[in-house]
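Good morning C.,

I know you're traveling, so I'll keep this short. The sequence:
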Amino acid sequence: MADASRCFSSRSELNKVVFVEAHFKPLYKEVAVKVPTGETKRGLFGGEKEVLRKETQVQQVGWSDSEIDGARLARDVAQAVEVLNSDGFEVISMTAVASGSYRYEYKIGQITSSARVVRDTEAISGNTGYSYGYGYSYTEGVLLVARLAR
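The tokens, ready to paste straight into the viewer:
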């Protein structure tokens, strides 16, 4: 269990419960950077100037807001199981813990129209509106239940 912010555990004499937190995937992007070549050249006013070349590098630019880093979660769970086993416990249950979020909005309005001069139509008036809503869930972590091996 790598650090306290990712894992919480509770222990009785025979059982132990461990929560292993999941993390979102890092997001990467190719970025153009200037890299020194180790060479120098004379500048316009006689000073020496370092020669740079452009190259692209892959850099982390943030974190996903929708995808869990499954490979990292697998490593963290394996490490937690290894610690439990070394402490004399065996895992008897593993449960994914899901969390989620949602957003919704609705608006009510009025509609009116007047009669057309060219056609014989009626005036229309009344209520209008729209709404939307969405929700999603993601794996927050994994709950491990272990018991003392006999």
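Safe travels,
E.
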